[in-house]
From TrEMBL:
<comment type="pathway">
    <text>Porphyrin-containing compound metabolism; protoporphyrin-IX biosynthesis; 5-aminolevulinate from L-glutamyl-tRNA(Glu): step 2/2.</text>
</comment>
<dbReference type="InterPro" id="IPR015421">
    <property type="entry name" value="PyrdxlP-dep_Trfase_major"/>
</dbReference>
<keyword id="KW-0413">Isomerase</keyword>
<dbReference type="Pfam" id="PF00202">
    <property type="entry name" value="Aminotran_3"/>
</dbReference>
<dbReference type="InterPro" id="IPR015424">
    <property type="entry name" value="PyrdxlP-dep_Trfase"/>
</dbReference>
<keyword id="KW-0963">Cytoplasm</keyword>
<protein>
    <recommendedName>
        <fullName>Glutamate-1-semialdehyde 2,1-aminomutase</fullName>
        <ecNumber>5.4.3.8</ecNumber>
    </recommendedName>
</protein>
<feature type="modified residue" description="N6-(pyridoxal phosphate)lysine">
    <location>
        <position position="278"/>
    </location>
</feature>
<dbReference type="InterPro" id="IPR049704">
    <property type="entry name" value="Aminotrans_3_PPA_site"/>
</dbReference>
<keyword id="KW-0627">Porphyrin biosynthesis</keyword>
<dbReference type="InterPro" id="IPR004639">
    <property type="entry name" value="4pyrrol_synth_GluAld_NH2Trfase"/>
</dbReference>
<comment type="subunit">
    <text>Homodimer.</text>
</comment>
<comment type="similarity">
    <text>Belongs to the class-III pyridoxal-phosphate-dependent aminotransferase family. HemL subfamily.</text>
</comment>
<keyword id="KW-0663">Pyridoxal phosphate</keyword>
<dbReference type="InterPro" id="IPR015422">
    <property type="entry name" value="PyrdxlP-dep_Trfase_small"/>
</dbReference>
<dbReference type="InterPro" id="IPR005814">
    <property type="entry name" value="Aminotrans_3"/>
</dbReference>
């Protein structure tokens, strides 16, 4: 084993300095700044297959996959060809086109929904789905779960996960905005319950159910790290439908990732509305929400709930989404391969952490995985409160150990990683070798 010398970061450092002058924190989305793990964020020059290359020319095995969209790997030939084909015909029409119809047909067929509306981001999808639920039910309140993240619309920045987990003060009780600039009056319309706490949800619904327009949830959480729902919690979620509230599955992360029909298909859910993003756009900006016709027909111009977008249904984005979903559908073993790879990574992590005597509790489902740096049985981390017990300093040190060895893990304890179809045994072996070394670093050996 050769001594570890960290790859150069001069160009990333220089870019970060310039970026901070002209962009808040130097980044266009907070987690990219490496705030919770420290060090210089790597500015990425290019991405192919399972690899990222940074501005200094260092190649990394990529485990964030642009935070989910790149399920086929970066620069997949089918997606690249579809985009360049679409490019010949113009980049935006501001009028409907055939690709929107094709993608809507494909999405509704794969997800057993009647109708879908495309947006340009996951945030717009969840924000719009909630407006629709309020318009449809004539009710005001929404319920979300602590540490779940549904994008950055005002009413959803309440006890939110993802980049906000590092900001939460840990106080339970009244719903607190997770961001400055969100009026308490908005936050007061969002009730918060604990994930995987069926009694808590039942109690909340018993008290306020008649005022609740929608309960929105991550069917598998990625934004507090991976949290997997219990069957009892899923039953309690479906009970909210008896109170006349719409159940909204936020599948922005899990859609087309945990199966061709997302977590909904994998876990047998019956939501009223589903939100998508990420994979549905194949790496270009797309979100969507859909459900049964009776509800979706409330959306403008058919119904009274307004929602719009200059670039919604953008032809390049539709082309990338179509190519991605068609490739997924054409390869029935793909999800099994992703899961096999991720299970091996998960098993390797468990074994290596045990050997190194580093307390780690692993949650994994399909191609999503989080090692929580805490002393708890594997699979036992089930809520925000559980996740928050993790040793974020140990995680940060481990993350840096991986990064310096060419493994680009998610730069926060409270995120999932995403394995792609481009990850093979070669990447798995290299990753586990780096994991072993990074764990050894933690012990100072
Ligand atoms: N919902 C979930 C579950 C997400 O994971 C995300 C983004 N990570 C969003 C919504 C917001 O999507 P976007 O970043 O595209 O606005």
């Amino acid at each position: 084993i050769t001594a570890q010398t960290s790859p150069p970061t001069e160009r990333s450092e220089a870019l970060f300095t310039r970026a901070r002058t002209v962009t808040p924190g130097g980044v266009n989305s907070p987690v990219r700044a490496f705030k919770s793990v420290g060090g210089t964020p790597r500015f990425i020059r290019e991405a192919h297959g399972a690899y990222l290359t940074d501005a200094d020319g260092t190649r990394f095995i990529d485990y964030i996959g642009s935070w989910g969209p790149m399920i086929l790997g970066h620069d997949h030939p089918a997606v690249r060809e579809a985009i360049s084909d679409a490019l010949q015909y113009g980049t935006s029409f501001g009028a409907p086109g055939e690709r929107e119809v094709e993608l809507a047909e494909l999405v509704t067929r794969l997800t057993h929904t009647d109708k879908v509306r495309f947006t340009s981001s996951g945030t717009e999808a969840t924000m719009s789905a909630l407006r629709l639920a309020r318009g449809f039910t004539g009710r005001k309140l929404i319920v979300k779960f602590r540490g779940n993240y549904h994008g950055h619309a005002d009413g959803l920045l309440v006890e939110a996960g993802s980049g906000l987990m590092t900001n939460l003060d840990g106080g339970l009780g009244a719903a607190a905005p997770s961001s400055a600039g969100v009026p308490e009056e908005y936050a007061a319309l969002t009730l918060v319950s604990e994930y995987n706490d069926p009694q808590g949800l039942d109690t909340l619904m018993a008290e306020r159910g008649a005022e609740v327009a929608a309960v929105i949830f991550e069917p598998v959480v990625g934004n507090a790290g991976v949290l997997i729902p219990t069957p009892e919690f899923l039953e309690a979620l479906h009970r909210v439908q008896n109170a006349g509230a719409l159940l909204i599955a936020d599948e922005v992360m899990t859609g087309f990732r945990l199966s061709l029909n997302g977590a909904t298909g994998r876990l047998g859910l019956r939501p009223d509305l589903i939100c998508w993003g990420k994979i549905i756009g194949g790496g270009l900006p797309v979100g969507a929400y859909g459900g049964r016709a009776e509800v979706m027909d409330f959306v403008s111009p058919q119904g009274p709930v307004y929602q719009a977008g200059t670039l919604s249904g953008n032809p390049l984005a539709m082309a990338a989404g179509l190519a991605t979903l068609r490739t997924l559908e054409a390869d029935p073993d793909l999800y099994t391969r992703l899961e096999t790879y991720t299970t091996r990574l998960s098993d390797g992590l468990k074994t290596l952490a045990a050997e190194a005597g580093v307390p780690v509790s692993v949650n994994q489902i399909g191609s999503m995985l989080t090692p929580f740096f805490q002393d708890a049985p594997h699979g036992s981390v089930r809520s925000y409160t559980d996740a928050a017990r993790s040793d974020t300093r140990a995680f940060a040190a481990w993350f840096q150990g991986l990064l310096s060895r060419g493994i680009y893990w998610a730069p926060s304890q409270f995120e999932s990683i995403f394995v792609s179809a481009a990850h093979t045994g070669v990447e798995l072996d290299a990753t586990l070798q780096a994991v072993r070394a990074a764990l050894a670093d933690l012990n100072g050996t």
